[in-house]
Amino acid sequence: MQKTFIRILVAITVFLLPLKAFSAEAVRLMPVMSVYSDDKGEGLKLPEGVACTDRSLFIVADTGNGRLLRYALENNALKTAGTEIKLPQMTSPVRVNMNSKGEILALDSRQRRIVHISPEGEFKGYVEPASLPALSQYVPNGFDIDANDNIYILDILSERVLVLNSAGEYQKQIDLPKDHGFFSDIAVDFRGNILLVDSVKAMVYSNVKDRENFSPLTEGLKEKMRFPANLTTDRRGRIYLTDRNGSQIIVLSQEGNFLGRLSGMGWKEGLLNYPSQICINSEFVFVADTNNSRVQIFSLVK
Amino acid sequence: MKTRYKIIFSLIIITALIFTASAYSDNAKLKPEAKGRLCLKCHETFSEKLKSAYVHTPVKNGECTGCHDPHTSSYGKLLSADSSNICISCHKEILPDKAQSSHKIVVDGNCMKCHDSHSSNNRFILLKAGNELCLDCHKDIGESLKTVRFKHKPAEDNRGCINCHNPHASAKYGSLLKKDIPALCIECHRTDNASFQARHSGYPVAGSQCTSCHNSHGSNKAAIVFENVHAPVAEKKCNKCHNEPSSKSPFATSKAGIELCRDCHKDKIAELLDKNNVHWPMLDKAACLNCHNPHASKGKNLVAAATSNVCGKCHSDTVELQERSKNNPKNTSLCKPVREGSCTACHDPHASDYSLLAPLPSMSFNVCDKCHEWRAHSSSHPIGEKTKDPRNKNLIVDCLSCHKACGTANMPRMTHFKNISEGCTQCHKELEGR
């Protein structure tokens, strides 16, 4: 009898262990450092954007000071400390991304245009594709760049996502889903799927690569978060949302399942106050910790 | 093998015990009046209640045990379940699944705020008859019904509110309505006559939202039009915004989004769009109509509803926080704008050059300062633009270092912290554990 019981226990354990391994991996953040100032010691002011590359470069949209700052990391320390990029054509950068050539694209909230900047920090123009289908004008509220440098713009005026090639030429548009709340951000994952976050309904929608429509990836997650405003994905397709009013980061699986919440409201390093853009590379998670006037860098602990 | 016999033997014993208990229960005869009539022997005054015109069925049937446990209970008045759940256990149909709208007191299970659970001289064992009951809570509507010059009959007759509203929930429609608009209005108002067409400038409004212009509770303006009317509507120049009434799509607008409004409100919109932070909904397809009613409104500036309702359409999390803060007894000194749901007291709903859509450079030193003399704080604690926050060199000590301006639900004095010491030890580490 006892032997039978032990056999059953062993069988159950052997069966359950792989299940646990395949289930939602617990993700934790470990604070690595916080960035408070530029190379001249001037403090960041309400930064809303941060972009990163795997070449350890990261760019901060220092919104309150109307500039971008370029940093480089080496061995968990700052190699280059905040070189300023200040342009008359960009006075209120709120979101920033980089393409594979190191060029910077920044969304300016005052002009509501995407500014194109060379790797050296020179103004190259605005992202203004010709021959857009009606309407010819657009209002970008978020954008992302994929591995092939294609640009995906969330156009809230015409309720569509515009897809442009690396030269900024119009390729196609995808209508936003009907019956939505308000879309605040867009991200493209490693497979080319487009994700949108609806802040009002606390929902994520996805457009599977090459399909024509968006469909809900999650149901309304109001019970898990207050007002998700930005999103990004990691190399495994996991989705990270910054819950602005909830001052936390929400992690979802690529299928949209809730995996957990990270950080929380506070002033100490590791805690967040009104976070905005988030960027993840192979090593670190960068968060624009807006109301703490800093950018926090975390490592992912699994 | 022995174990198997033991299990079989135990099962036989358990089955026997269950059968015995069941048999005993069948044999334990209660007195015929035990379900309720017996109760009246002590609760003498209750017999008066039974003389009321309308008596709750279990009471009428003498089944006090329908709601009460005669011996003991974990709930008040010996109720057999929590008072917020006991009614719904029989009246499940009151709240349809996924109702489009539901009355808060019903959802909260506060049925006794409208009904007497035993008996009443009013139909449906209501505490009061007709509108009187509804207006006890909906005082603003009551006041308006009394004072408005042009009244809407259904809002005032004997049935009153329930002419149009379902008092519990509406499965398909908003605002507890029995039918959608205009179907509800068309039940009484004919739309196929010439005068109706003429009054609506020839536009085929029979299928439109009547409540976009008319206040169904009455108004001081003729035709119970809302008191604040958009100039083109007042002038009957609907074609300023819409296509001509004879066109294929008469209600389509000549321009999209903010461009339509810009035709008249050019300077205002230019000023707003020149700010660092434009409230993003202003720039989407609905633009101004996210918050304003383009035809007429009860509120000033054609705002579509009360401020907290308009803002709460998107920022429901913050409005809920305000509500929870209001209901928190620890928040004795809740800010007036939070108490009144007046978001625009601290935020510019259109655009701002400053963070959090603050209308002035500093949320703390300029906006809070409109009501609070924050400098008085500096006598007991340093505060101000020259006082660095020890937790973060980029921050200064300001009102928001300790307080959260939209309310903090369960925390006292609108602070971020459970108690004063938790707040102090944020910076004053030496006080920790004292």
Give an overview in words.
The complex is a heterodimer of chains A (302) and B (434). Chain A is mainly beta and 302 residues long. Chain A has a single domain, classed as Neuraminidase, CATH 2.120.10. Chain A contains 1 helix and 24 strands. Chain A is globular. Chain B has a domain of 116 residues. Chain B is built from 18 helices and 10 strands. A two-stranded antiparallel ribbon of chain B has the order 1-3. Chain B is extended, with a radius of gyration of 31 Å. The N and C termini of chain B lie far apart (65 Å). The model of chain B has no long low-confidence stretch (mean pLDDT 89).
Summarize the structure.
Chain A is mainly beta and 302 residues long. Helix content of chain A is 7%, strand content 45%. In chain A, the strands form 6 sheets. Chain A has a 4-stranded antiparallel sheet, with no helix packed on it. Chain A has a 4-stranded antiparallel sheet with strand order 2-3-4-5, with no helix packed on it. In chain A, strands 6-7-8-9 form a 4-stranded antiparallel sheet, with no helix packed on it.
Ranges of chain B where pLDDT stays below 50 over 5 or more residues in a row are none
- Count of extended strands of chain A: 24
CATH topology of chain A: Neuraminidase
Tally of contiguous helical segments of chain B: 18
Cα gyration radius of chain B (Å): 31 Å
Major interchain interface with per-chain residue totals: A-B, 38 and 28 residues
Write down how many β-strands of chain B occur, each being a DSSP E stretch of 2 or more residues. 10
User: Which strand-content bin applies to the residues of chain B?
Assistant: 5-15%
Number of helices of chain A: 1
